[in-house]
Give the backbone structure.
Amino acid sequence: MEQIKIKTNHIVSKMGQEPIAQIEKEILAAKEHLLKGDAEGNDFLGWVNLPEEYDKAEYARMKADVARLSAKSKVFVVIGIGGSYLGARMVIEALQSEFASMVRGEKPYVVYAGHTLGEDYYTQLLTLLDHEDYSVAVISKSGTTTEPAVAFRIVKAHLEKKYGKAEASQRIVAITDARKGALHDIAVNEGYPMYVIPDNVGGRFSVLTPVGLLPIAMAGFDTDRLLQGAQDMRRLCIEKNTLAENPAMMYAAVRNILYRNGIKVEMLVSSLPNLRYLAEWWKQLYGESEGKDHKGLLPHSLSITTDLHSMGQYVQDGERLMMETMVHVAKPATHVDVPTDEHNLDGINYLVGKSLTEINDCAMQGTVQAHLEGGVPVVEIDVDRIDEYTLGQIIYFFEFACGVSGYTLGVNPFNQPGVEAYKKNMFHLLGKPGF
């Protein structure tokens, strides 16, 4: 398999091997807690073996529904918030054309709802849906989370008005709890095809369940290869017990060492615009998993070279409170060279014949060197290419490292008690009964 490689030589050369050796036992102990399920949050560890133990019968049924819905839809609306949509969006946007909304392919174009309460957004969405054949996936464990519940009510009313109630029920799939909850009950009453969010898989770890797999398949991408990548990375993470051999363990170790030495912010950095939702998914994964008990690195993100012209000054010369995790992709899917210009008024003929990837790589390595000289610790994660297989690897790599890192930090990585605070205030302001 094409293994994700992690480079920590810049950090190790500065701080020496001793901190790595000292933390290795803690990392191994955290890994054992993850695999044995004997620590806090052990009722949400279903994702650990999910790439191997997913429901094969449900997966086959999902593929049949994807084929049926794809045949009647030009647009597919994914209704969800947080982990209910970020994983799918991360994979879809990493693989589809940047201009997919303007150059439609054979597969439905995926749009999103339930992640915002912006009124203009829904007006614009409904205007689009007036003119397009579409179907819907509504994703919620409970069915009562405000943002997706409001979105589903709006979209469901539009769908029923456009197609009639009977046909609308054939254009909606519900991804929810297996036995209970408002969305479960609605799906049963209305006869929607229903897929299960496993009880032991939290939302931010759910991309390899129907939560992520169904929208990704609707967009036309190979979920078999995605799962294969995750399976191979799972085997590596479980079987290898040294930091040198296990990139997820090494990543967890380095970020905990840096945190203990005063680093407060981690920036995930890539030079590819199609990976911007990798950063959004990663921010939720680590922010919700580790940001508790007044602990944890604050997850942030940058895009090279775009953000070097806005945030680059702060990273280079601002307060020394951050580390960077650079995701480097070796091989692009396509190739573009810089053409010649006989007048050379822009002064860039020295780049003639160089590919944009070569220039981008030089920009990234120049950034690494500059930020290291500026006192920013840099971890590099090397990926051969971006496709379904490597994205499956990336997903499992970051999930496994997150569980190990959280336990090493001394928190429960699988709860999110702080998420409820804003909801209570919002419900009071809106006049919800009981608040």
Observations:
- The chain has a mean pLDDT of 95.
